[in-house]
Design brief:
By secondary structure, this protein is α/β, with parallel strands linked by helices. The chain contains seven helices and five strands. The protein binds zinc ion (ZN). Residues 201-203, 205, 208-209, 211-212, 214-215 line the site of zinc ion (ZN).
């Protein structure tokens, strides 16, 4: 094997500033002595995502955090990177099946490739990404099958060795409610303060709009977990624990 020496004590997290990648970062901190993070600025419509990622990385005392500006190379009709209108839904039951219009082709493929490049520079072979196929919304690059293929492609492409990288996907088979419980276990008494820094809403609304695909799934997860989402304090329409199902 050529390139930087790989060790087992360091990990790199792809940190978007959302609930899932933040949970991954918390788990990585539990498992690895040294945790680094990379966030990609791909000219997403809402800068609040980047601000959340920076705040989370600081709060978790990560060893390093790079915000990598990759410009507008990810082109798509997705409202996350264009001015296409964002779908709103009255409730989680009204979410359509199939591929969501928010899907950005190639995003996780590109992110993992760039993260692997940074991992080599940092002497890391363990990469965390917060993908989940339970609520995958037709995002093909959120499935374990894709992660398995990328693990082999990156290992072969970077080192000529299929198992050179380990891509950790601790949320892959969890429901959103189970992810909430996992974050609570990993963060302990910092759960509220750190989750309140995260941002998930596709509309860029602090505290969440409550109507977009991302908000509806996050809200459902917390309600099913029986836990008030710390970001609800920023949402005027939800007061205290009223957002919880009886
Ligand atoms: Zn929203």
């Amino acid at each position: 094997m050529t390139g930087s020496k790989l060790t087992d004590s360091k990990a790199l997290v792809i940190l978007s500033g959302g609930q899932d990648s933040t949970t991954c970062a918390a788990l990585a901190v539990q498992q690895f002595a040294e945790v680094h993070a990379v966030t990609f600025d791909y000219q997403q419509r809402h800068q609040i995502e980047l601000e959340s990622a920076i705040a989370v990385a600081q709060a978790l005392h990560l060893k390093s955090h790079e915000v990598s500006a990759i410009g507008s190379i990810l082109k798509s009709t997705s409202p996350l990177v264009s001015h296409s209108p964002l779908e709103e839904y009255a409730s989680v039951d009204q979410l359509p099946g199939g591929v969501e219009p928010t899907f950005i082709p190639g995003r996780n493929l590109l992110f993992l490739t760039l993260a692997a490049n940074r991992a080599v520079c940092l002497g890391i072979q363990d990469i965390f990404i917060g993908v989940c196929e339970t609520d995958f919304a037709g995002y093909w690059d959120c499935r374990q099958r894709f992660i398995n293929a990328m693990t082999i492609a990156l290992g072969e492409g970077f080192y000529g060795q299929a198992d050179a990288f380990r891509i950790h996907t601790p949320l892959m088979s969890l429901t959103k409610a189970a992810s909430v419980h996992l974050a609570q276990t990993a963060l302990g008494d910092r759960f509220e303060s750190i989750l309140s820094l995260t941002h998930t809403c596709y509309a860029g609304v602090k505290g969440g709009c409550g109507k977009c695909h991302a908000c509806l799934l996050r809200d459902r997860g917390f309600r099913e977990a029986g836990i008030a989402d710390p970001i609800w304090k920023f949402r005027p329409s939800i007061v205290g624990h009223e957002g919880l199902a009886e």
